[in-house]
Amino acid sequence: MKICEKCGATNSNDLYYCKNCGNSLGEPIKEPTNNNLKIAIPVLIASIALIVGGIFLSQDGFSSTKNATASVNQQVNSGNVSNSESNNLNDKNNSSNSVNRDNTKSVNNSRNYSNNNSNNNSSSSYNSGYIIPDSNVRYLSRSELYGYTKEQLAYIRNEIFARHGYVFKKAKYRNYFSAKSWYTPDYSFNYEYDLNSIEKANVDLIKELEK
User: Fold this and answer.
1) What is the DSSP secondary-structure string of 127-186?
2) CA distance 39 to 41
3) From CA 67, how far away is CA 138, in angstroms rounded?
4) Which of 98, 164, 175, 203 has the CB geometry, 3.0–4.6 Å to 194, for a possible disulfide?
5) Is pLDDT above 80 for 7?
């Protein structure tokens, strides 16, 4: 949450201006999307399953190896086991240890994959510099726009134009959007041809709320 330095009101991270007093809150902070969780959760579950399976297998293998070794020692001491049988049992013990090492390696590789995948997703830039990043592909609702002042709504509306390179005549909009890395002026901008139906509908709704 963002705390307004001017009035102390609590605002959500995606707001550019304070809902209470209209003071600038700085660039919106985008939270990680659910897509990241959809990827991370299955990987995490698989990692846990491998870890638990490795632990049980390791414990069972260790117990079997310990019992077998004790039996061999007892038989060797009593002179009832041949060298060949002793070597075969040692081979089984080595095979069991190899399986345990392979399971541990598999768990570690799965854990590393999960961490790398999470880090790659986290390194994505969520702070796009937009007030409403998806206003060009999603119909905005009245309820979400009611929290903005008329001045803020004007910036949101012009942000839709700025995506297509509209060259602003007013200095405040020209200076604001020129500072955005994604803004590229395009003097051939045409409202009818460049804006899609969703953007036009959002512009009309914002204009209605600005009155």
Assistant:
1) --S-SSTTTTTS---HHHHTTS-HHHHHHHHHHHHHTTT---SSHHHHHHHHTSTT----
2) 6
3) 66
4) 164
5) yes
Q: Give the span between the Cα atoms of 161 and 194, in whole angstroms.
A: 9
148 Cβ contact list (under 8 Å, min separation 6): 15, 17, 19, 156
Q: Which residue has the tokens 């659910």?
A: 34
Return the structure tokens found at 73: 């020692």
> Which backbone phi and psi does 3 adopt, to 5 degrees?
-105, 125
Full DSSP string of the chain: -EEPTTT--EE-TT-SB-TTT--B--S--PPPPHHHHHHHHHHHHHHHHHHHHHHHHHHHHHHHHHHHHHHHHHHHHHT-S-HHHHHHHHHHHHHHHHHHHHHHHHHHHHHHHHHHHHHHHHTS----S-SSTTTTTS---HHHHTTS-HHHHHHHHHHHHHTTT---SSHHHHHHHHTSTT----TT--HHHHS-HHHHHHHHHHHHHH-
At residue 35, does pLDDT exceed 80? no
pLDDT in tens, 57-86: 445 444 444 554 454 455 434 444 444 444
